[in-house]
Amino acid sequence: MEPVTRRSFLVKGSAGAAGAAAAFGTGWTLSSADHGEASAASQSELKDLKGPLVAQVTDAAAGKVSVLVGEREVNVTDKSLVAKLLRASKKN
Amino acid sequence: MSSHREAPSILKDPLADNTDVYAWRTNRNTIAIVTSYVPVEAPAGGPNFYEFGDDVTYQINIDNNGDGKADVTYQFRFQNQITNPNTFLYNTGPIKSLDDPNWNRRQTYSVTRITRRGARLIAKNLKCPPCNIGPRSTPNYAALADKAVYTLPRGEKVFAGQRAESFYVDLGSVFDLGTLRPFQNLHLIPTAAANGRDALAQANVHSIVLEVPIPRATQRTNAPTDPLDPKATIGVWGAAYRQKAAMRNPDGSPSFAGPWMQVSRLGNPLFNEVVVPMARKDEWNAVRPHQDAAFAKYVAQPELAKLLPVLYPGVFPNLKALTKDRADLLAILLTGIPKGLIPGFQNFTGQTQADMLRLNVAIPPSSNPNRLGVLGGDIAGFPNGRRLPDDVVTIELRAVAGATYPLVDPTFTPDAAVSAIEDGTFNNPGRKFLDNFPYMGIPYSGYDVP
Fold first, then answer.
1. B205 sits in which H/E element
2. What ipTM goes with this model?
3. Which residues on A lie below 8 Å from B245 (Cβ)?
4. Which of A88, B134, B236, B386 would staple B382 via disulfide (CB 3.0–4.6 Å)?
5. Does the beta-carbon distance from B259 to A56 stay under 8 Å?
6. In a domain, A1, yes or no
7. Is residue A44 assigned to a domain?
């Protein structure tokens, strides 16, 4: 089973962004419901997650997100991820 | 205080608040290092007595090549245990041993040594002693705490637990507009003269005490013997770290995520307290010593040196006229004192400006220690390291007032009042240090000191 690594996270993030761009032209038009299935974590990724995973949007316009997990920090640039988080934050 | 509650953020986080750092050479070719946390513990702390943070990483950092970065680090992490989930009590009877079932809330810790070769766990499941509660709960406390002294396979000794506060200061006076008790009548707002009052006379702290064979801390495979050897000086600082994100769970428990962030550090006593402006104190606690050039201007032109002539009109005329950068203080606090200024002495670590407690380990312990350290002609004391009884408040007050400026400008004459400045608390009868490891005094018991 593949552990959650910086590399796999980046690959996964990039794939999501590319997929969004291909389907909708720009990631900003993507709805969370549309993209939710493709982004589901694998069972192995879920098993590897031992504690909380915190995402801090450090620059929403630039799509910069700091992901805190375990004792690590992974910085990613993913505008579609920011968009999904922003929309999620507005849900009741 | 030395570094007790000295910055806006860390004053809210006492378990991570590094209050003091001490480092001195012992008479056994070892270096003793003490870093204390949890400022101003009232001994009667029940029902939840004081402890280290199990969510804090504590480090003793040693720079041995002058770049202000740690070359040898001893890292301490603590774990809590509750043995009886059905009582509100810290102890349900006398605690007579470190395994006593009457002791309900206890701590163990691990020690990891980190060098450029990597990190190595050198001890685990070491036991802290309980806090000193009183004669019924912790009878024969000294013997009980002695059981928490450990000697590790490579020669290090460690202890972590409650101790009597070693730092002394007339805090109420200093922060009442810079009152110096001997000169109250000369103050801008004069009052009658009175003796100094030690604000920490009966307080406890939590101390991590480490004794290291000298070659385990320096670049030398043998202990340096020449005080003028450039590699004879090490820089020491303590620091505490918390994970970047903290969350509260519905059941009241916390969760954490992310890398460890420095939230407190200290090399020289009082650096962040009285040198760094309030607006930058939190930043100073967050950055590393090798980044201290950004704070050098506050050392070069210390605010306190400008205040003294204002607060004491006519008492410090030479200090008032001294407007040049304070090269003496820059050396003492940020680079070490280069050779050639004090015969037979140097603790210079290079041009990198970094707040570290610099210790020239080639200088043997003094057979007749002077509480004023180098100012008193005793080069085995502060600012060559720092021993527990060193009167650092008086030393630094005198230095800021101009006592050390002749080191860099022999034409300067310190004001006559400088040699009379005293904190006035050095002879506090409550300060009882131990002759042997862990050196810090037995903590005050809650029964005796409510």
1. strand B204-213
2. 0.84
3. 52, 54, 56, 68
4. B386
5. no
6. no
7. yes
